[in-house]
Inverse folding.
C-alpha cells in the first residue's frame, strides 16, 4: 500500500518515531492511524526489551515540589549516554516520574514501575519508560527516588 507523506508526517509528530518506522507502520496497518500508533508502541516495547541489559552510565536527578510546598520528590534517572540525558524526551520523562512519585507515594522503585501512570491510567509507569526507551534507543532505569512530606 502506498501511504501519503502527510500521513507519515502526522504519525511522526504524534509518536515521535522515525520516518521509516512510521512509513512501515502505515503500510503494514493499511493506512489506519490508530493501528499504526499501536504498531509503533509495540515495536518500541520490543526495542526496550532488547536494551534492558545495557549498562547505564549517565543521567540526571529530577524533582517535583507541590504548589503547597508540603510535598516533594526526587528521582534519579539513568541512561547510557549524556547525549540522551539532555534530550527533551528524557527530561520530560524525568519530570513525569518525579510527579508520579510525589502523587502516588510508592515505597520501592518496583512499586513505582507497577503503578498506573497518573496522566494516563490506561498504562503503567513501566510502559511509559519503555515507550521512551523505544523512541530514544537507549536503556533507561530509575536508580533511586525519595518522597518527602511535611
Amino acid at each position: 500500500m502506498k501511504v501519503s507523506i502527510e500521513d507519515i508526517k502526522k504519525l511522526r509528530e504524534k509518536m515521535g518515531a522515525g520516518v521509516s518506522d512510521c512509513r512501515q507502520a502505515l503500510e503494514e496497518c493499511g493506512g489506519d492511524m490508530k493501528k499504526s500508533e499501536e504498531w509503533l508502541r509495540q515495536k518500541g516495547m520490543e526495542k526496550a526489551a532488547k536494551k534492558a541489559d545495557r549498562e547505564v552510565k549517565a543521567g540526571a536527578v529530577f524533582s517535583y515540589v507541590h504548589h503547597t510546598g508540603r510535598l516533594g520528590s526526587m528521582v534519579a534517572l539513568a541512561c547510557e549516554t549524556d547525549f540522551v540525558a539532555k534530550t527533551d524526551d528524557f527530561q520530560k520523562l524525568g519530570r513525569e516520574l518525579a510527579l508520579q512519585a510525589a502523587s502516588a507515594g510508592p515505597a520501592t522503585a518496583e512499586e513505582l514501575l507497577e503503578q498506573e501512570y497518573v496522566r494516563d491510567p490506561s498504562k503503567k509507569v513501566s510502559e511509559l519508560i519503555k515507550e521512551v526507551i523505544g523512541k530514544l534507543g537507549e536503556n533507561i532505569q530509575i536508580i533511586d527516588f525519595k518522597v518527602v512530606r511535611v
Strands lie at 58-65, 71-79, 116-117, 120-124, 140-149. The mean pLDDT is 87. Residues 58-149 form a domain with the Tetrahydropterin Synthase; Chain A fold (CATH 3.30.479.20). Residues 79 and 140 are 5 Å apart (CA to CA).
